[in-house]
Amino acid sequence: MALEQLLNSYSLDARLAALGELVEMADAGAVDCQTPAGVANMHCHTFFSFNAYGRSPSSLAWLARRRGYSLMGTVDFDVLDAVEEFLTACDRVGVRGSAGMETRVYIPEFATREINSPGEPGVYYHMGIGFVSGTAPDGAAPILADMRERAARRNRDMAERINAHLDPVRIDYDRDVLPLTPAGNATERHMLAAYTRAAEKTVPDLPVFWSVKLNVPADQIGASLSDPAKFQNLVRARLMKRGGVGYVQPGADSFPTLGDVHRLILACEALPCATWLDGTSAGEKDIEELLGLLIGQGVVALNIIPDRNWNIADVDTRRIKVQKLYKIVQVAAELDLPLNIGTEMNASGQKLIDDFDASELAPVRQAFLDGAHFIYGHTLMARAAKIGYQSDWAKKNLPTRRQRNAFYTAAGYRFPPGRARMARLAGCGPQNTPAEILGA
Description:
Elements: H1 2-6, H2 12-27, E1 40-44, H3 57-67, E2 71-77, H4 83-93, E3 96-106, E4 123-129, H5 141-166, H6 173-177, H7 188-202, H8 206-214, H9 218-225, H10 228-239, H11 258-267, E5 271-276, H12 282-285, H13 287-296, E6 301-304, H14 315-334, E7 339-341, H15 365-385, H16 392-397, H17 401-414, H18 419-425, H19 434-438
Parallel strand pairs: 1-2, 2-3, 5-6, 6-7
Antiparallel strand pairs: 3-4, 4-5
Helix pairs in contact: 3-4, 8-9, 15-17, 15-18
């Protein structure tokens, strides 16, 4: 549908106009939308960092409406560019929404242990969730700007090294990479697309070229070229990841500090959120130590990508990963850490939504849904009445994390999305108790 394609335009005006028309058509019964199914994807990258399907914030909100996803959340690397558009779009389509940010930090206490960034001891993928504005307060704005600048600098340095290796295939970062993004925040995956396109235009025999440059047999290259996702993963692994010509082992100065990232998140009254890969690394085997350290520095939630922890062909590996998934969900409950879960959507082949009906997810499904409603509940209250999780009101009325978790989860279930609900909650504030608000 042409209107759905316009949702991914780099023009915000075009996206918003297309979304408005689609919602009107859906409300009139001219577009079939599935009945909300009580499922959630709270970890979706948008095209402001990289979405494998090219989806904008408005497109993701419409996807949820069209497919019957009750809750959806965005996350982007190192930027908050999607926040306001996505939350406004969720109001328009009637989906419970949240917005977040992902980055990498260095944790000196784990300097000798790999955590959740393979091959990189001390380096940790970290998140903030529950943002309600894409603009950081003045005191924290330099931290956000530094995160964007660091990412761009790492990319440009990597491009220089890869250009030298792939010659005569070369890219110009400003000319070939930045136009692939709507707001100048490029990632390795944008660079990957630029290199594969440049090779197609430059060399007459792709299998031979890539065979030499990647040190992979030509017949293997030829077979993988018919599967773009598989081929791109191969190129990325050989050029950009550990051992590749573009890779530089990161250290303590490569990324912002955990303290700086938390200062940014808290200044925005959002929620510092730990992340978990699969429980097999040295750092994640010491998960209670890691989470205890992070909670001590302000973490209040935990992100999990479920599909990679159960949807595995090898039976023995699946059994091990599923048990580790159950264990981390149990640990999170014991530590009062609500869960933020989703599929990422930043690589081809990743699902649009988790399979909530999978038997492997049955024991943890409710914890996933409770966590999704928790972060929506915080987001709604912060936007409508300025009484989100980090507010003075919450600190006074809900002094423990367990009390706050219970309140914002209940609010997430109790209050549906939309502008009308926002307006009705706007009168709530310091004068109201949690029970009064939930009973409104």
